[in-house]
């Protein structure tokens, strides 16, 4: 689905930003006006123009708040948060030392936190104990009654921060009486940015402390905790569910059986061989040429080097080798919903592999281009995706 840009990555990321409009994360006119100022593939213009829009909308929110217009302020601050996240997206050349990237990531967290204080339902910042530190996140509650309710733990993906969870799941969940506990894990959001902790393949070591924390909260029904994985999170939570059996239901959006294989098969055979045999002197320059000509490849490899703690793109690919569900799917025992996307830009075919390998109670939903839900994680089709998800979940948790 081409959306406003010929550049495949720009098209998808603009669709992602615009797709959250249904939950107040964007205004279509603002998206169209911003995109019109950005040439295809120009990442400097991307940052400049999305930042300008974010700052403009941020100021609207501050002005509204100063005048006591609570709803207007909340709406503007939510949009500003999404736009700041979008502006920062391609700054991956040296994110650990990039002052502007750090500033923008701070702003999308700051504006979301300000909007959360203005919501009609309670939103609590959380700090989840994890291996001598804490994982930051949010608990989105239906109300402040303390009544135990079904709750979904949301696990981010390769680049999505906890703040995005409101648009990706929490808004739709709250409207149906479900609560959401969202967090940044190693390699994600504020954890990689502030603590420098990279991804780890044994994700059960992350999810088990999160479940432990959830069980300390009286407002969370311990018998009705679901686990939702978003993008790469669809692999991570499936891995975790093979070992963590206090989960009542598992949702993979989308399913991802073998992250390593999904990366490797996008490379020509000679490059695969060089990477996997450690011939970095040959592999890294070739990867560099691919990155120069392809926005998607450049962003994906740069982000991987950073979030996996790798020394170069070839090292990153090697570090993904343990990220597979081979030998683990039989251990997943809870009912599982596997989403797939007809035109998945990143992991085409992987969701079906997961579904076919599962032996538990399972359900498969394919998002199609004809319905407008065929893109990765069904961007641009949040309402339809949530209808599928919550209709299934209401039956499973009943």
From TrEMBL:
Record keyword Hydrolase present: yes
Molecular function (Gene Ontology), one example: hydrolase activity
Assigned keywords, A-Z: Hydrolase
Record family assignment: Belongs to the AB hydrolase superfamily.
PANTHER family: CONIDIAL PIGMENT BIOSYNTHESIS PROTEIN AYG1 (AFU_ORTHOLOGUE AFUA_2G17550), DIENELACTONE HYDROLASE DOMAIN-CONTAINING PROTEIN-RELATED
Protein name: Alpha/beta fold hydrolase
């Amino acid at each position: 689905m081409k959306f406003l840009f010929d550049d495949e990555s720009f098209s998808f990321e603009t669709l992602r930003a615009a797709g959250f409009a249904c939950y107040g994360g964007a205004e279509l006119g603002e998206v169209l006006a911003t995109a019109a100022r950005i040439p295809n593939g120009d990442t400097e213009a991307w940052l400049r123009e999305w930042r300008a829009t974010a700052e403009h909308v941020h100021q609207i929110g501050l002005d509204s708040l100063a005048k006591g217009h609570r709803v207007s302020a909340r709406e503007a601050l939510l949009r500003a948060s999404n736009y700041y996240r979008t502006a920062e997206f391609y700054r991956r050349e040296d994110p650990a030392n990039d002052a502007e990237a750090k500033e923008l990531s701070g702003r999308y967290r700051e504006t979301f936190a300000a909007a959360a204080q203005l919501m009609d339902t309670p939103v609590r910042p959380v700090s989840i104990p994890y291996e001598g530190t804490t994982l930051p996140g949010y608990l989105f509650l239906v109300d402040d009654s303390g009544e135990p309710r079904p709750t979904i733990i949301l696990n981010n993906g390769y680049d999505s921060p906890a703040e995005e969870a409101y648009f990706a799941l929490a808004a739709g969940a709250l409207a149906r009486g479900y609560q959401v506990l969202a967090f940044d894990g190693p390699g994600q959001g504020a954890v990689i940015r502030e603590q420098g902790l990279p991804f780890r393949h044994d994700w059960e070591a992350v999810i088990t402390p999160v479940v432990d924390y959830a069980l300390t909260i009286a407002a969370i029904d311990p018998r009705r905790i679901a686990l939702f994985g978003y993008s790469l999170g669809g692999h991570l939570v499936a891995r975790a569910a093979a070992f963590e059996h206090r989960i009542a239901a598992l949702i993979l959006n989308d399913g991802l059986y073998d992250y390593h294989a999904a990366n490797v098969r996008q490379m020509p055979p000679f490059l695969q061989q060089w990477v996997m045999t450690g011939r970095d002197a040959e592999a890294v320059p070739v990867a560099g040429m691919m990155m120069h000509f392809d926005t998607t490849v450049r962003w994906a490899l740069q982000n991987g080097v950073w979030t996996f703690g790798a020394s170069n793109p070839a090292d990153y690919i090697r570090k993904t080798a343990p990220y597979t569900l081979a030998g683990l799917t039989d251990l997943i025992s809870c009912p599982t919903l596997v989403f797939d996307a007809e035109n998945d830009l990143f992991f085409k075919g992987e969701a079906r592999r997961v579904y076919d390998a599962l032996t538990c109670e399972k359900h498969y939903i394919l998002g199609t281009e004809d319905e407008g839900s065929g893109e990765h994680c069904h961007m641009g089709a949040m309402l339809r995706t949530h209808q599928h998800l919550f209709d299934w979940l209401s039956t499973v948790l009943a």
